[in-house]
Specification:
Elements: E1 5-9, H1 16-24, E2 33-38, H2 45-59, E3 63-68, H3 71-75, E4 80-83, H4 89-102, H5 112-136, E5 141-144, H6 149-159, E6 163-166, H7 171-183, E7 190-197, E8 200-208, E9 211-212, H8 213-224, H9 229-237, H10 244-251, H11 253-261, H12 266-285, H13 302-316, E10 321-328, E11 341-349, E12 352-355, H14 363-385, H15 388-397, H16 404-417
Helix pairs in contact: 1-2, 1-13, 2-12, 4-5, 4-16, 5-6, 5-14, 6-14, 10-11, 14-15, 15-16
């Protein structure tokens, strides 16, 4: 057992209680470690600190927790840094959804125009964090949840020397939790491997209790009577979408836009769920409610906190485990560009991530994935250069953009709306 210092940057986020809960129930590998909650907004840090202390007491583990608004103080002596913040906050998300909608373009936080502008806001802040890490804790691992995580991974790879893993609780990582329930088996009886780009990946391998999983999946979907996009993709494309909600609009754009306008949006879900979360978190921190994470709610779904903690445990304990991570493509997907950031399974331990070879993506989904990589890389180019022309290039590279005139107007309106978070422009 060795002592670690785990700095959670964005320590007042509603995602943090799930991370703290997983840390408190992580066993002995991190015994004696300190958790540091850092946030530029101090308002929720006292409550988060009390909640973490209560979780530690109930779990009877040897952890301590402190909080600060000073990033330098948080990073001093850190061995793990968990990036867990949203540049632009919920207002940035609202703008990313609503401004494109004015132009009949789907607004979404990690794809389309919204994804580009989220990257423009996130990349400078994460690179600032990386620069601080290089100066203060150069040997620490950055475990990054800041979205869009694949864009951030690309920028960090280009501009920083920190050891980093960019992760997402969706795709293959999420299926590792949800598919066992679908099949009625234990989690360790399902092996799922997906490949593609973040939020747009496809199941390449599936085994259930040692058996080939695709036939079982088809049978289970038929028995359930579900004939939605998942079943359609499986039958027509021959491959199961690891991110069906994100991939659905590429194949059913008009329906997705109509559903968004009918109220199906991430911002809407956040503004509905968060007041309930904050009330529950306060009650738990004060000892007025039982400490529990609601697995049916986005922010407290076990996957998010558990994934980050399990990766830290694999690195800290040098215990090799398999996770889906966002890494440069070095033969992992053989028909995607070399060096492009892809989301693939990898073996993770103290040495970092060793991606597994998934072979070729099927031709049926290859063209879409290649287009998304070009859009992703242009968006990162724009974030790093502050060049408006490159922003427009990124916008028109995305499959949802059907008009150069709209791309120009969208670019200028969104640059103005997000100006406070775009120092590079």
């Amino acid at each position: 057992m060795s002592q670690h210092r785990i700095a959670i940057i964005g320590g007042g986020s509603a995602y943090v209680p799930g991370i703290l809960y997983s840390l408190a129930h992580s066993g002995t590998t991190l015994s004696g470690s300190e958790i540091v909650l850092m946030d530029v907004d101090p308002s929720r840090l006292p409550m988060m600190t009390k909640l973490c202390e209560r979780m530690i007491d109930e779990a009877k583990v040897t952890l301590t927790v402190t909080s600060t608004t000073d990033v330098s103080q948080a990073l001093k002596g850190a061995t793990f840094v968990l990036g867990n913040f949203r540049p632009g906050g919920l207002e940035g998300l609202r703008l990313d959804e609503t401004i494109p909608d004015k132009y009949d373009v789907l607004g979404q936080e990690t794809t389309g125009p919204g994804g580009t502008f989220f990257a423009l806001r996130s990349i400078p802040q994460v690179l600032d964090l990386c620069k601080d890490m290089e100066d203060i804790c150069p040997e620490a691992w950055l475990i990054n949840y800041v979205n869009p995580t694949n864009f951030v991974a690309d920028a960090v790879r280009r501009r920083s020397t920190v050891k980093s893993l960019a992760i997402c609780d969706g795709g293959g990582n999420s299926l590792a939790y949800s598919l066992p329930e679908l099949f009625g088996v234990q989690q360790d009886e399902v092996q799922v491997r997906a490949a593609g780009v973040n939020h747009h990946s496809w199941v390449m391998e599936l085994h259930v209790s040692g058996e080939e999983g695709y036939p079982l999946l088809r049978e289970r979907l038929r028995k359930s009577g579900k004939s939605g996009f998942r079943a359609w993709a499986l039958e027509r494309l021959g491959i199961y979408p690891a991110n069906p909600d994100y991939l659905f609009p590429y194949y059913n754009y008009d329906e997705a836009l109509a559903e968004f306008r009918a109220g199906d949006s991430l911002y809407g879900m956040f503004t509905t769920d968060l007041p309930e979360h904050w009330t529950n978190f306060e009650a738990m921190a004060e000892g007025k409610a039982r400490v529990q994470m609601d697995v049916n709610k986005h922010h407290t779904d076990v996957t998010h906190g558990d994934l980050a903690v399990q990766i830290m445990l694999s690195i800290a304990g040098n215990e090799t485990k398999e996770f889906h991570v966002n890494v440069p493509n070095e033969g992992a997907v053989t028909n995607l560009p070399e060096g492009a950031i892809v989301e693939v399974p990898a073996l993770v331990d103290a040495g970092g991530a060793r991606p597994l070879c998934m072979g070729e993506l099927p031709k049926a989904v290859l063209g879409l994935t290649q287009a998304l990589i070009a859009w992703q890389e242009l968006s990162v180019d724009a974030a790093l250069t502050g060049d408006r022309n490159t922003v427009v290039q990124a916008l028109v590279a995305h499959p949802w953009m059907r008009s150069t005139a709209i791309a120009e107007k969208l670019c200028d309106e969104m640059l103005a709306a997000h100006a406070g978070y775009l120092p590079q422009f």
